[in-house]
Amino acid sequence: MTTRDKAYLDFLTQFLTDERKQRFDEVLQYRTKHLTVVLEDIFQAHNASAVMRSCELRGIQDVHVIENNYQYDVNPDVVLGSTKWIDLHHYNEKEFNTPTVFDKLHAEGYKIVATCPHRDDFTPDTLPLDEPIALVFGTEKLGLSDYAVEHADMHVRIPMFGFTESYNISVSAALLLYSLTNRLHASETIPWHLKEDDRQQILLEWTRQSLGRIRQYERKFAELHPEFSKEENR
């Protein structure tokens, strides 16, 4: 976080109610980047939106949306405003964007975990969490692309005991996130909490979201701190 952003956060925080500041602190205690979610070409907006809602409720800050053939449009009746509290990353510059996302996440230290009902690598109870992981979910009918399955570092499945082939993607995501975040919260050795710089950056964005009429606050801040305007114009 830059010096300007720190000063800007301090400035904006004074306009928040004590209740709102306390709520931010409570939620941030459970926010994590140790676990992230990747959606590959989800064409049913209500399912993708339901996954977003589960991510926000379970403390997942980053969601990566791969748009190879289908563009994701938020369904407001499903997300119920949850997407304004998480960071969505869209990938649609190429015809096939999955390799770009995998390379990016690998470079950031993530292990790629493909969700596959027919692979027996791990279950939610046995999946290793000592390193950051990225859970990859595919479409309802086709599942993950061959590339995603073949280039994943690990595979996870949710045990099933009925005749139906698989869970709905939104249900699958909710079950996995519930189990895995519970394991993180119970761990005394896994460093799953946000780094301080990430925490402050998220807090700044949430504060901006909460206040509204942000242009007025920006103008006031610029009047009080002309030194930052000079730095930006250099």
User: What's the count of strands?
Assistant: 6
* Uncertain stretches: none
Distance between the ends: 19 Å
Q: What string gives the helices and strands in order?
A: HHEHEHEHEEHEHHHH
**pLDDT average, as an integer?**
90
Percent helix range? 40-55%
Helix-strand makeup class: alpha/beta
- Strand residue content: 5-15%
Strand order of the largest sheet: 3-2-1-5-4-6
Count of helical stretches: 10
Backbone shape: elongated
The major pleated sheet works out as: 6 strands, parallel
Architecture overview:
With 234 residues, the chain is α/β, with parallel strands linked by helices. The protein contains ten helices and six strands; from the N terminus they run H-H-E-H-E-H-E-H-E-E-H-E-H-H-H-H. Strand 1, helix 3 (45-57) and strand 2 (62-66) form a beta-alpha-beta unit. The radius of gyration is 20 Å and the shape is elongated. The model has no long low-confidence stretch (mean pLDDT 90).
Compact summary:
By secondary structure, this protein is an alpha/beta fold. It is about 45% helix and about 10% strand. α1 packs across α8 (about 195-210).
